[in-house]
Amino acid sequence: MACDGISFTAPDGATHCIPIYYEVDWKVGPDPGPEGRLFRDLGILATVNRGIAKLSDQRLRDTLSQAIVKAARDIELPKGMKLGDGLFKEQKAFMAAE
Question: At what angle do helices 33-52 and 58-74 cross, to 10 degrees?
């Protein structure tokens, strides 16, 4: 049985699935061109980072946040552009609150 969530086997041997539902609607329309793809990709990374900031396990937050920041830095920006230092502020704010 495919399970989009957490599965467990009950004492009677029956397997159950608790599905995990997604709140973000990843609408991907027609190809927006190179600049549009750049902003879409950065928007998706920022959205994922916002979700990471809500995780309660700090090690998991740190690991995923580092991966997101690395991915964003790996994006080749047009000459003269750079990532704003506030783009991934949610993670920092969450960590500072602890």
Answer: 170
Q: Which two tokens stand for residue 22?
A: 């997604």
How far, in Å, CA of 1 to CA of 7, rounded? 9
Neighbouring C-beta atoms of residue 67, cutoff 10 Å: 14
Is the full-model pTM beyond 0.90? Answer: no
Q: Is residue 97 scored above 60 in pLDDT?
A: no
Contact of 61 with 91, CB cutoff 8 Å: yes
Q: Which amino acid is at 72?
A: A
Q: In whole angstroms, give the CA distance from residue 52 to residue 90.
A: 9
Neighbours of 52 (CB within 10 A): 21
Residue 54 CA to residue 79 CA, distance in Å, equals 34
Give the C-alpha separation, 77 to 38, whole Å: 8
